[in-house]
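Researcher: Here's a chain I'd like modeled. Treat it as a single chain, no partners, no ligands.
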Amino acid sequence: MEALCGDKIDVAGYTAFQIAMTAQQSSGKDLYYSTAMMEDDTHPISMFIVKKDSDIKDFADFKGKTIGILPTLAYKSWAEMIMKENGIFDDVTIENVAPNMQVDALKSGEVDILFTNDPVATTVIQKGLGKNLFEGAIVTQYTWTPYPFASFNMTSDFVDKNPETATSIVKALDEAINFINSNQAEAKEIMAKYLPDAQKDFVSFYPDSLYVPSTGFLSADLTNVADSYFEIGSISKKMDLSERALSAQ
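Model: Modeled as a single isolated chain. C-alpha cells:
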C-alpha cells in the first residue's frame, strides 16, 4: 500500500481496509477499491494462537501477558478494540512481531499469545506448536459479520489513463473469485504452487476463503465500510468513497 500510494506501482491487493484507507488519507492519493475479502465464522482469518500446553483459555487469562501481533495498523486496532471490550487493555502488552519471527517468538516465550493469520497460524497448529484459542472468527464478535477484511486497489491515475486495462483486471479478479468460492480445495492446491516450500504442506489446512466479486461490492458497501471503520476508530476521519468502488460492469 505504501508503494501504491507512493506511485511505485499501479495496482495492489488484497490490503486490509484500515491500511488502505489510512494510507489514502495520509498521502492524499485517490484510490479505487474493487472486490472484497470477507471474514465470518466459516471463513475465519484472524486468530489468537497460544502454545499447545498453555494454560491460557480465555481473555481473563491474558492479564500480564504479551501479545505479538502482525505489524499492521489493522491488527493493532483490532487487538486494542478486543482488549478494551474485555476490560484488560491496561493489563496486556501488545508488540509488533514480523511474520517470519512469529513462530520463534511464540516458541521462545518472547510472546505468550500471537494475534495473526495464515500462513503463521496454520503452520503453528499443524506443527503441533500451538493451538487456536477461539473457534470461528474472533474479530466479527466485536464488529459485525460478514466482516469486510480487505480489498484490491488501483490508483485513480492508473484507472483514468487505462480504463480498459483496469476493467480487464477487475474481470480477472471476478473470475478468480467465482472459481475460489466454488472450488476451495482446488484453489488451495493452485495457491500452493506459488508459496515457499515451508508452507506448501499446510495449505490444505487453511480455512476456506470468502470473497465478494466487484458486482457484489458496490459504492454503498464501500461507504458503509468507511463509515463503520471511522465509528470504531480504525480510521481517523470520515471519507467520501461514494464513487470509489470499481466494478466490472
